[in-house]
Amino acid sequence: MKDVRSDSSFILHHSSFTIVSMPLSLEQYARWLDTRRELTWPAPPEPEPVRARPHLKRLRGVRAVLWNVYGTLLAIPLGELVFEHPTQFVMTTALEKTIAEFKMWFSMSRKPGAPSEYMGQIYRSLLDEQRLAPSPGEKYPEILSERVWEGVLKKLMAKEYQFDAAFYGSLNEYSRKIAYFFHASLQGTAAYPGAAAALRSVAERGLLQGLCADGQCFTSVQLRRALTEQDPDLPFDDLLPADRQALSHAVRGRKPSERLFRAALDALATQGVEPHEILHVGSRLERDLLPARKLGLRTALFAGDRASLDAPQERLNEKSHKPDVLLTRLEQIADVVKG
Fold first, then answer.
1. Are the C-beta atoms of 91 and 186 separated by less than 8 Å?
2. CA-to-CA distance for 3 and 66, rounded, in angstroms?
3. Are the CB atoms for 149 and 129 separated by under 8 Å?
4. What is the mean pLDDT of residues 16-42?
5. Does 56 have pLDDT greater than 90?
6. What secondary structure letter does DSSP report for 160?
7. How does DSSP classify residue 332?
8. Whole-prediction pTM value?
9. Which residue from 100, 98, 82, 122 is spatially nearest to 178, judged by alpha carbons?
10. Can you tell me the distance from the alpha carbon of 102 to that of 179, in angstroms, rounded to the nearest whole number?
11. 256 upstream amide cis, omega within 30 of 0
12. For the chain, how far is it from start to end, CA to CA, in angstroms?
């Protein structure tokens, strides 16, 4: 594993002093956390097989594949990224770890109760602010995790909270790093078996690839790290370049937002790819596949994990809802797209 202390942008970091030439990027910060042996993270879930029979056929004319992330390429507890974990112990632990890691306690109110209780109140109020904020023209607005934590920081800074900008960067950059740390403490992630091989097989057939998914500022970092853990030589930036990653945090609309899908279509349109030439792979019928189908895309349902699969059989039996193909393993994509 590469130690970020050898990077030109990072010379040395210690709890008592920091020497840097420039702040760490989010990717470098994630690698630096790997060197912190005292940190523990929730384990990613083991996929729970689904009783399903694959439906595979060659799809002619496909020139590009758009992937969903959480629940399709990345395994995650509960099958999707959440802002509040339904298990209170998990939520409390993630908040406590975040408070301790970023030394927030000394700038928090000394109200009775545990620090996580007080932080939880602030966190939920900032979540609610975004949920209730007007979103003209968007039926499915997205919450921005880094904005929640930026709001937390502003409240703390009113009570003389300080942070090391030379190491963490600007307030916005610092907020993104806190968001990454908090969500990594909340839900463990890992690439589904065969995810890297699936991306390679699509690329070997000469097809373009991109993302059309609900995701936060740290989603690409999580995905890159999980895929390269599975395949260290995977050329992530070549297979999934930034300009073909339509993620809800950037588009400000989450699935089934048409804005999100159109952002992904627009990126591929610059390469001369039309909607009927695109295959969208997802694990949820209503949120992933139906919006894609309405816009003229082909669809593939990934039924490889009970936690993420949302496709009631009675809906699958309807002609208007039936996906073009059904995958039970990601590597089966090789049997679907032609070179």
1. yes
2. 33
3. no
4. 86
5. yes
6. T
7. G
8. 0.92
9. 98
10. 11
11. yes
12. 35
Our separate counts of H helices and E strands in the chain read: 13, 10
Pair of tokens at residue 328: 């039970």
Q: 109 phi and psi, to 5 degrees?
A: -60, 140
Rounded to whole angstroms, how far apart are CA atoms 127 and 149? Answer: 10
Tokens 């599975």 belong to 230
What is the rounded distance in angstroms from the CA atom of residue 246 to the CA atom of residue 211?
6
pLDDT in tens, 155-173: 999 999 999 999 999 999 9
pLDDT tens digits along 94-112: 999 999 999 999 888 766 7
Q: What is the pLDDT of residue 5?
A: 40
* CB proximity list for 155: less than 8 A, separation 6 or greater: 122
Identify the residue whose tokens are 């594993």: 1
Whether the CB-CB separation of 295 and 275 falls below 8 Å is answered with yes
List, as one string, the DSSP characters of 244-288. Answer: GEEEHHHHT--TT-HHHHHHHHHHHHTTT--GGGEEEEESBIIII
How confident is the prediction for the chain on average, in pLDDT? Answer: 93
If pLDDT is split at 50, 70 and 90, which confidence band does 2 have?
very low
Look-up of token digits 């500022």: 217
pLDDT of 6 higher than 60:
no
